[in-house]
Specification:
- By secondary structure, this protein is mainly alpha-helical.
- It has a domain of 185 residues.
- Helices cover 69% and strands 0% of the residues.
- The protein is built from 20 helices and no strands.
- α5 packs across α6, α5 runs parallel beside α8 and α17 runs antiparallel to α19.
- The two termini are 27 Å apart.
């Protein structure tokens, strides 16, 4: 298809995405943004940070350093929603450009069309619409992670440290750097993160001590663990087995998921194949976290792109399935709130845990990819010709950074 026609199709997809996003945001109260503003206001007024609350009495649950970053939102007052919305859209656009280039190269398509189409699909997805509706910071965190690995800037380690200081989840990418033997990057990421902790401690020492000693590990403080929006292994176990879930099963399954994801990610990053590396570790952070609200699943985007880069039926089917699940917001098809999640039966269990189950299917494919890759490595070391690539290893080759 000529580049002009590709751009027309992409613009149609983008327009649909923007219309859906506008419809979602219109009239919302930006619930989570109100919490950010409350945190920034507490810093300005010298009030205890973790007594600050936003709409509906929701408490501030982020790091003290994050509250410092939210001070400008508190200063802008009524303009805060517009500022967050513009920042989120700009971040999503940058992510679409970085990932769209890889898609264009892999499929010999127009890069502008790929980036515009990808942005449109992102704006249609439930995690992104929820992020925009709540005034969440997830789009900015996704951009920081993708920028750090995709743009290959010298400031990449500092970017990861900053992202982890806003939300702890990006800390998962620090071991990826060490495992890929990027020692300097890993160390600087740790130093940057520690510097943000020190800064928060200076501003509000008592509240910083309270956060890092108790609040940082209290998953129940951020909401109901069994709520259907919590698409993590822990949330799945709570919904299946009742309050408390199964800590042993959570720990064991998270270990296995982490092992597979880091092995794939480290192998990919050492070879300069960054999209699969980011997608693998991002998926681990979503599944293993005690709380992964549905809007956190914007972090699945790199994995879906990595799957879409491979011209194989398995990978393309997975990419399509994941995209449909996110756009349709399948998890909301079931009864939810007021602990109705404990009463799910039959297909309700599948639908109410759709994101988690999809992630586990991808993990199984990653494990199969590792097994096949090791087999080919053994054959290569013995002087034999390696076999044909599997779905996800093909995605690795397609995302190689020259």
């Amino acid at each position: 298809m000529p580049a002009f026609r590709q751009r027309i199709v992409a613009l149609v997809v983008l327009a649909l995405g923007m219309l859906l996003a506008a419809r979602t945001v219109w009239g919302t109260d930006f619930t989570d943004l109100s919490v950010y503003v409350a945190g920034g206001r507490a810093i300005l007024q010298g009030e205890p940070l973790y007594r600050a609350t936003g709409n509906f009495g929701l408490p501030f649950t982020y790091t003290p350093f994050a509250a410092l970053l939210f001070v400008p939102l508190a200063l802008t007052g009524p303009a805060a929603p517009a500022l967050m919305l513009v920042g989120s859209l700009a971040a999503l656009a940058r992510v679409a450009v970085l990932l769209g280039r890889a898609l264009a190269d892999a499929w010999s398509l127009d890069p502008v069309a790929c980036s515009a189409g990808l942005l449109g699909l992102m704006l249609m997805s439930e995690p992104v619409t929820a992020t925009l509706r709540f005034g969440q910071i997830n789009a900015l965190v996704l951009w920081l992670v993708v920028e750090a690995f995709g743009a290959r800037r010298a400031s990449a380690p500092w970017i990861i440290g900053l992202a982890a200081a806003i939300k702890l989840t990006p800390l998962a990418f620090v071991p990826l750097m060490f495992g890929a033997r990027r020692w300097r990057d890993g160390l600087f990421s740790v130093f940057a993160f520690l510097a943000t902790i020190a800064l928060g401690w200076i501003v509000q020492p008592s509240e910083a001590a309270r956060y890092w000693s108790t609040l940082a590990v209290d998953a129940r403080r951020v909401g109901g663990v069994a709520f259907v929006s919590n698409q993590s292994i822990n949330g799945l176990l709570w919904r299946l087995q009742g309050p408390g879930g199964n800590r042993l099963a959570w720990a064991a399954s998270s270990f296995v998921v982490g092992l597979v994801c880091y092995l794939v990610g480290m192998r990919a990053l050492r070879r300069g194949e960054w999209i699969l590396a980011v997608g693998s570790v991002g998926l681990f952070s979503l599944l293993a976290s005690p709380i992964s609200w549905s809007h956190h699943w914007v972090l699945l985007t790199p994995m879906l792109v990595a799957l879409g880069l491979r011209r194989s039926r398995t990978a393309m089917a997975l990419a399509a399935l994941g995209t449909v699940l996110l756009i349709r917001g399948v998890i909301w098809w079931v009864p939810n709130r007021d602990d109705l999640e404990y009463q799910h039966q039959g297909w309700q269990i599948v639908e109410g845990n759709a994101y988690v189950l999809f992630g586990l299917v991808v993990i199984a494919c990653l494990a199969w990819s590792l097994r096949k890759h090791e087999g080919r490595d053994a054959e290569s070391n013995a002087g034999r010709t390696a076999g044909s690539g599997d779905a996800l290893d093909g995605a690795c080759r397609a995302t190689r950074v020259n």
